[in-house]
Design goal:
Helix content: 25-40%
Largest sheet: 8 strands, mixed
Number of strands: 13
Order of helices and strands: HHEEHEEEHEHEEHHEHHEHHHHEHHEEH
Distance between the termini: 33 Å
Strand order of the largest sheet: 6-8-7-12-13-11-9-10
Strand content: 5-15%
Shape: globular
Length: 485
């Protein structure tokens, strides 16, 4: 039953064909199985009971929560040893919204430490593996959520997205990943990484399910001054409407295979797959144009992201000293204790990012690095805003192919494909709504296509994504492990 979509599960609950208790028991059982195969969870709530079934579509249905969402009385670690024993005294606003809807939390999913990674390999509980091929990564940071949903543990899980942390894992795992317009879903209770880039969102196996969950998570929140009133938006209803002028574009500098002279066979197949998807848009009656953007701006995206995100992270996480949160460090005074706590508690990746953040925020470096990064961010966002004056959406491939091999993986960018790998960060720069959906297979592994619209055009985006999904056969798919020599 848990392999089905939310509407089907809700209908079965209402008809009495299954109980919430049975679904929860099954989700917990599957959680342990997926933990054995994928290492996808920090906490499994073995004693969780079923919930009341009401008219709300999420009522009585189990789900998973990324471990950087605060949950009252439940371990919330951010997948970091610095918070390995942290139990919050309050829950995130979006978690409370799901609870009011009747959703039943069954586990907290593993993630790259504090969301600062794109591989799923820096969780304090170990590496999360891809359910399609355990020799490959899920991407990150919402690694556990993606693996769990793709494995059929439940129909949806929450994620957070600061650069592509919902959308790329979704592509690698053959599911849907949705990052809404900035502020649609309150960030109160989400562990802050980079506050101007962080978005709460959701991973599902269909576009409609993403709309159903986001409809319940969203809403203005007095505890988050960046949130806004989206009560006029009805994302689920938008899936059945034709809201666009049917004009989309893709960017030549990202999609042109001739720009990748050392392209692998996987990359060639991926871009070929993407052009077939472009043909599907044309079959749906969309005008599709190839457009150009200043390549210097596109090349700058990763650097801008690193500078701004590291600077904000350094500031946001300065409170992780071991004095208020987490295990105390050793030392003869508080300075030595904090140094010991942060040195032993953080992974090398986190420490590297804190060093970068501290460096670019130093008075003598701010203008050259941090302020310039902010200026380039604005130039990049303005380029996209110009596109949205003409087009309903920008459509692009996700990454340079299917999930990368775990062996030999690094967090260092490959210069030859960095534009392909990092362009989703533009959605965070501008706070644009952005959704990734399955786009087929390369080497028997799933790949994804991304749709990004202008701010506050989430309904339009769901309308477009739902129609494209209807032309494909990948909705609701469950991961089937592929063996490769």
């Amino acid at each position: 039953m848990l392999e089905k979509d939310i509407l089907s599960i809700h209908d079965a609950l209402v008809r009495g064909e299954v109980t919430s208790e049975e679904l929860v028991r099954e989700a917990i059982k599957r959680s342990h199985e997926v933990e054995e195969s994928c290492n996808a969870f920090v906490t499994i709530l073995d004693d969780q009971k079923g919930g009341e079934v009401t008219d709300n579509l999420l009522s009585g249905i189990p789900y998973g929560l990324k471990d950087n969402y605060s949950t009252k009385g439940i371990l919330s670690t951010g997948s970091s040893n610095t918070l390995k024993d942290y139990v919050p005294f309050f829950s995130a606003t979006s978690v409370l919204n799901l609870k009011r809807a009747g959703a039943v939390l069954v586990n907290k999913t593993a993630m790259d430490e504090f969301g600062m990674g794109g591989t799923g390999t820096t969780c304090h509980t170990g590496v999360v593996t891809n359910p399609w091929d355990h020799t490959r990564m899920t991407a990150g940071s919402s690694a556990g959520s993606a693996a769990a949903v793709a494995s059929g543990v439940y129909p949806y899980a929450t994620g957070s997205d600061t650069g592509d942390s919902i959308r790329k894992p979704a592509a690698y795992c053959g599911i849907v990943g949705y990052k809404p317009t900035y502020g649609m879903i309150s960030r109160y209770g989400l562990f802050a990484f980079a506050s101007s880039l962080d978005h709460c969102g959701v991973l599902t196996r269909s576009v409609r399910d993403a709309a159903i969950v986001a409809d319940e998570m969203k809403g203005i929140d007095p505890n988050d001054m960046t949130s806004w009133d989206s009560s006029y938006m009805h994302l689920k209803e938008a899936c059945d409407k034709d809201l666009g002028k049917k004009k989309v574009c893709y960017i030549k500098e990202i999609c042109d295979i001739t720009r990748y002279p050392n392209a692998t066979e996987e990359l060639k197949s991926h871009l070929d797959n993407f052009m077939k998807t472009i043909d599907k848009f044309k079959e749906l009656g969309y005008q599709v144009d190839e457009v150009s953007i200043n390549e210097k701006l596109l090349v700058a995206v990763p650097s801008v992201y690193v500078i701004i995100s590291c600077a904000e992270a350094t500031s946001n996480m300065s409170n992780l000293t071991g004095i208020v949160f987490g295990p105390r460090g050793e030392g003869e005074n508080y300075i030595e204790m904090m140094k010991d706590h942060r040195t032993k508690g953080f992974s090398s990746l986190i420490k590297r990012r804190f060093v970068i953040g501290s460096y670019v925020l130093q008075k003598e470096n701010q203008e050259r690095y941090f302020r310039n990064a902010q200026r380039v961010r604005r130039l990049i966002v303005d380029e996209y805003k110009k596109l949205f004056q003409t087009y309903d959406a920008v459509v692009l491939p996700v990454g340079s192919g299917p999930a990368k091999k775990l062996e030999g993986s690094t967090d260092i960018l490959d210069d030859s494909t960095q534009i392909l790998e990092e362009h989703l960060q533009i959605g965070n720069f501008g706070g644009f709504p952005s959704i990734t959906i399955p786009d087929g297979f390369v080497n028997q592994l799933p790949v994804g296509v991304n749709i990004t619209c202008n701010c506050y055009e989430d309904e339009l985006m769901f309308s477009i994504a739902s129609k494209l999904e209807g032309t494909m056969n990948y909705k609701g798919q469950i991961a089937k492990e592929v063996c490769h020599d």
